[in-house]
Write a structure and sequence with these properties.
It is a multi-pass membrane protein. This is Claudin. It holds the Pfam family PMP22_Claudin. Belongs to the claudin family. By secondary structure, the chain is of the alpha+beta class. The protein has a domain of 143 residues: Butyryl-CoA Dehydrogenase, subunit A, domain 3 (Up-down Bundle), CATH 1.20.140.150. The protein has a five-stranded antiparallel beta sheet with strand order 4-3-2-1-5. The chain is 59% helix and 10% strand. The chain is built from six helices and five strands. Helix 3 runs antiparallel to helix 4.
Length: 226
């Protein structure tokens, strides 16, 4: 039981780290390789800034100065990724409390409920990250294969694959956390009666009381008291 929860927490923690890395990355979409060979320049775009580089190794990044000029799908992806990171943070806290190897959280039944709650939070975090990356990728592919789209075409960046991998880890780890409450309910707890430590004197007195008294009673005459 301990090993399963530890594996689930490792999955979720790695998924949270991948979501943070994908959110901060600037490689959500990159310029097409075919055009990059001709111009020898690369353009990277992320959720927070746009970057451009050349074959000499020089890079220049420009952040989005205002959110009102950012396209709607980028703002939606921002909100989903921020929600995924926040949910993953709270899920990690509840996961630590709900694990049986920790000293906080109360009884085993209470810790199992907390672990199940952490699993649900991680699943929601993974779904938010998965939705954000899929929405961004759908926009890139639709523009790339649209023959009427004459502007610069982009390809899928590395941040999307990192986000998909992190979302999968969060969903898998959260599912394992949710199954922990079912496993805890299937294994009933056994109660043991504690009789306390028996002292040596009490044991001897019990043995003496258990032995019947075989001595014959003495009969005294009335004259013995005179």
């Amino acid at each position: 039981m301990f090993g399963i929860q530890i594996i689930a927490f490792i999955f979720c923690f790695c998924g949270l780290g991948a979501a943070i890395a994908a959110t901060a990355s600037n490689e959500w979409k990159v310029t097409s390789r075919a055009s990059s060979v001709i111009t020898a320049t690369w353009v990277f775009q992320g959720l927070w800034m746009n970057c451009a580089g050349n074959a000499l190794g020089a890079f220049h990044c420009r952040p989005h100065l205002t959110i009102f000029k950012v396209e709607g799908y980028i703002q939606a992806c921002r909100g989903l990724m921020i929600s995924a990171v926040c949910l993953g943070f709270f899920g990690a806290i509840f996961g630590l409390v709900g694990m049986k190897c920790t000293k906080v959280g109360g009884s085993d039944q209470t810790k199992a409920k907390i672990a199940c709650l952490a699993g649900l939070i991680f699943i929601l975090s993974g779904l938010c990250s998965m939705t954000s990356c899929s929405l961004y990728a759908n926009r890139i592919t639709s523009e790339f294969f649209d023959p009427s789209f004459v502007a610069q075409k982009y390809e899928l960046g590395a941040a999307l694959f990192i986000g998909w991998a992190g979302a999968s880890l969060c969903i898998i780890g959260g599912s394992i956390f949710c199954f922990s409450i079912a496993e805890n309910s299937n294994s009933p707890r056994r109660g043991y009666a504690y009789n306390g430590a028996t002292s040596v004197m009490s044991a001897r007195s019990k043995v003496q009381n258990s032995i019947p008294d075989k001595t014959t009673p003495k009969h005294f005459d009335k004259n013995a008291y005179v």
